[in-house]
What does this fold into?
Amino acid sequence: MEPLGGRTDPVARALRHATLARERAERELAAAARQVRLAERTGMDLHHRLARLHRDSASCQRTAAELQEAYARLLSGSAADGPPATAPDFMASVAEVCGTRGAALSYLAADRSQLAVAASDEPARAAQELEFLLGEGPATDASVAGTAVRAAGPELRERWPVYGTALPELGFDEVAAVPLRQHDNCVGSLTVFDPRSGAAGSLTEVADALTRTMVLGPQADPGLYGGTDVRAVVHQAAGMVSVHAGCAVADALELVKARAFSEGLPVDTVAERIVGGELLLG
It folds into this structure.
C-alpha cells in the first residue's frame, strides 16, 4: 500500500493487490510444473492431481489480479473526471471483467437468509433488493441448486413470475448467477445483468476468485473496500418482530420484507423504523 497525503491511495492499493496476486499466480504455476516433473519421474497420479490444484489456484490469482487492475482503472478514471461524490464500488470492476451491465454479490447466513450484498450500481442493487424481498430469482436458485442459472426474455417471467416481470422495469433483459463455493458449502452467489454471450465460464472463474482470494481466503477483504451492505439491521428487526409477534425469526423476516415490498421502501429503511420503535409489526 502506498501513502498519499497521509492516507492510503486506493489506486496504489488496488495495483499493489494486483501485483501480489500475479506473483502468487507465478508461484502456483511454478509449483504445478514441479508436480508435473515429479509425476513424469515417479508415474504417480497424485502429482498430476496436485498440479491441477496449483493451476486452478494460479487461475484464481490471475482473475483476482484482473479485478484489482480493473478497479484501479475505474478509480483512476473517476479521479480524472474531478473529485467524485463517492468512489466507484469494487463490484463495478467485477461487472467490467465479466462484460456485463451490472453485477451483485450476495452472502448467505447459516440459515440461508441474505446476510450482506454488494452491487456495482443502483440498478443492480435494486434488482438484488427486489430478489431479497420476493424470495425468488437467480441468486436464490443458484445458491439452493449450487449450479449456474441463466434466463432471458419471456423465460424470466416463466421462471420467476414476479421478479421476472419487474426486472425489465429496472432496465435488464437477461440475468445469470453462479454460486460462491467454500469447500462443499455454498456461501452466496454472484449475479450479473445482461451478460455477454458465453459468460457462464468466466462468471464461475470470477466467483471462484472472489470467494478464494477476496472474500474468504487468507488475503480476503470481506468488506470489498466499503461497498458491502450488511443486513444486520434487518436481522435485528426480524428478531424484535419475532419476540413481539411470538413467531419464528424466519417468519418475522418475511413480515419485514412484506412490509417493505408493500410500501415500496428499501427493507433497510423499514428495519430501521422497527429497531427505532417507529413501526410495530405483528
